[in-house]
UniProtKB/TrEMBL annotation:
EC numbers for this chain: 5.4.99.-
Coiled-coil stretches noted in the UniProt entry, renumbered to this chain: none
Keywords linked to the UniProt accession: Isomerase, Lyase, RNA-binding
Gene Ontology MF terms: lyase activity; RNA binding; rRNA pseudouridine synthase activity
Protein name, entry field: Pseudouridine synthase
A Pfam family annotated for this UniProt entry: PseudoU_synth_2
Keyword Coiled coil: no
Family: Belongs to the pseudouridine synthase RsuA family.
GO biological process: enzyme-directed rRNA pseudouridine synthesis
GO cellular component: cytosol
Domain RNA-binding S4 positions: 6-63
């Protein structure tokens, strides 16, 4: 599909009007007009210059926003929680636009998380085909052994498949406390992947933080719970890395 063309339901969702699913319902119900004509076909594509009206309201194209957030531990990577726990978007209540997390960090994991209102960018960053590097610092119970490091560097068999080669660097080992602090860089984003990679060798992860993304984004200058807007150059660099490796 040409980069210019976009599915109608996506355009409606991206405008912040409603979710994509709700947008589909509105289209089917005949509540959406494109350039003054009612459209009920879900596959319809629109150009940026097309005038879209939903339930009589003309859509404004939203500015794209990309945020680098330092997620604290004990915060949920979601836009809502049925148990009332703090979610990442609670930190951005004042924004006029709806933003969503790009990928996820576990409840107990802290660190670098992107949020955006740009769905296409989210797909680019999270699709397994595009390999964006993520660096974590993990505190482990037990002594990480040399052969375990070697195995992680080659790839290990987890229940959902073999992991891609990881970069592993031991930062600190404490004999008395029987702990290891290790830096690990992976380019996949499977559920609880880092924790499972160490648990594979019997090392429970007691602390985990994502400290770097794509080799150039860090948490520098931020405290937990703070965020900053990515520069257009940073966004471009991320897109390039995803598309060109
Ligand atoms: N790996 C994990 O185990 N947890 C995270 O939050 C991120 C990567």
């Amino acid at each position: 599909m040409s980069k210019e063309l976009e599915r109608l339901q996506k355009r409606i969702a991206n405008s912040g009007y409603t979710s994509r699913r709700k947008a589909e319902t509105l289209i089917v119900e005949g509540k959406v007009k494109v350039n003054g004509e009612t459209v009920t076909e879900l596959g319809t594509k629109v150009k940026p210059s097309d005038n879209v009206e939903v339930e009589g309201v003309k859509l404004e194209q939203e500015d794209k926003l990309y945020i680098l957030f330092y997620k604290p531990a004990q915060v949920i990577t979601s836009v809502s929680d049925d148990r009332g726990r703090t979610v990442v978007t609670d930190y951005f209540d004042d924004l006029e636009t709806r933003i969503y997390p790009v990928g996820r960090l576990d409840y107990d994991t802290s660190g670098l998380l992107l949020l955006t209102n740009d769905g296409e960018f989210t797909n680019l960053m999270t699709h397994p085909r595009y390999k964006i590097k993520k660096k974590y610092v993990a505190k482990l119970k037990g002594y990480l052994m040399r052969d375990e490091v070697k195995a992680l560097e080659k790839g290990i068999q987890l229940e959902d498949g073999k992991t891609h080669p990881a970069e592993v660097k031991i930062k600190n080992q404490n004999k008395e406390k029987n702990t290891t602090v290790v830096e690990i860089t992976i380019s996949e984003g499977r559920n609880r992947q880092v924790r499972r990679m160490f648990e594979h060798f019997g090392h429970e992860v007691s602390k985990l933080s994502r400290v770097e993304l794509a080799d150039f984004l860090t948490l520098k200058g931020l405290n937990a719970g703070e965020g900053r807007v990515l520069t257009p150059h940073e966004v471009k660099k991320l897109r390039n890395l995803a598309e060109n490796g």
